[in-house]
Amino acid sequence: MNRPGLPDPYDPYDRGGEGVGGGTGRPRIPAPRVPAEDTGAPLPATAPEPLVLDHPVLKSLLGAWALAACSPAEAAAVEEHLGDCGPCAEEALRLRDAVGLLHPEESLDLDPGLRTRVLASCLGRRPPRVPLPDWAAPYDAETARLDALLKDIGDVEWHAPVRLRWFDDDRPVSRKTTVAGVIAHLLAVDGLVATALGLEDPLGADAAPGLGPAARTEAYWRAAQAPPTRAVREPWRDQTHELIRTVSFAGGGSGRLPVPYGVPPDTTTAPGDAAPGPALPLRDSMLERAFECWIHAEDIAQAVDYPYEPPAPRHLHRMIDLAARLLPATLAERRRAGRAPAGPPGRSLRLEVEGAGGGEWLIPLDAPGTSGSPDGEVAHVALDGVEFCRLAAGHVSPEEAAAGQVGDREAIRDVLFAAASLSRL
């Protein structure tokens, strides 16, 4: 309640008590303003006046309109014009299609590193009871990526033609199969690792011993008695899961277990069975299988017109490192076969691999099993990381692979052809 003699703050017309100075009789709170509509004054414009442009100007704006670079008024004028002018409408449609080609095609796959980051975050909170050895992580990631691609393709696409490529005797060769045939090939060659771990051989208990990767693939294709279908995906994926579980339970020490790849001298070889050597330790064999899984996933993706990304950089680096470590023995084998001349001892070549997953390696040219010496460096080769891997897979010719070459040309040629010789069916 207001005190007597004082203005009431809630009464805009209260002059205050009589005898108290300052009362003016004017309201203390302004009254509402009169609406503009009731004053009779012209109302402000609510929208800008549309642009009136002649045909040549509107036609010149079509390119900017296709790129969404027009002002709102210009865009409205162009769109109004397109409803009345057939030639301009056709030109606008062509320009819009051309703008679509300027944007790179985005992969439908997730970021290759996303799965690794999610797992690392989860495992950081609660470590696994049976951890996966670090050297098996690339195989786990690449088989999962390929399986995600296979889930997205239809029944007809499993029979899409795929051409497998590699180098044999310093010349490119190829073999035609289908998407299902590629998965059958991976299943058969992964069986080398499975049998080394004591698991079931996909070729069956009666499979001939000592078969190399190409011979195993041919045997599996022959035994099928019909072209493979999408039914091959399930046994392939089951085998990859079993391999990952087995090496996880076996622990990191199992990485030294030998996995035979080569063929005994008294056994008939199939084309492409010369690499990567008579045996690899399990840790390198799992990495080699991850590499081939990625390469053939790219073959499949190309056949079904599907975008596919390279492996995560840390996995790609390990694949490049494996190829670099296999080069000295491959160089020695080429010299024994008469495909490369011998040179003075102590020479080395610096291999610089650029991009994500890259690095530098000193490759001994004349003494396999030793480390290259900077004092004996006779040449330097620089390549992109993915390009080097495709060279090692036989998908790029040695003449086209090197981005930079300095030094002994003969040594450079030997190393590039040795890298291509790592490839096989």
TrEMBL record:
Residues 1-10 have a biased composition (Pro residues). InterPro entries: Anti_sigma_zinc_sf, DinB/YfiT-like, Znf_put. SUPFAM superfamilies: DinB/YfiT-like putative metalloenzymes (SSF109854). It holds the Pfam family zf-HC2. Keywords: Transcription, Transcription regulation. Residues 1-45 are annotated as: Disordered. Residues 60-89 form the Putative zinc-finger domain. The keyword rRNA-binding does not apply. This is Putative zinc-finger domain-containing protein.
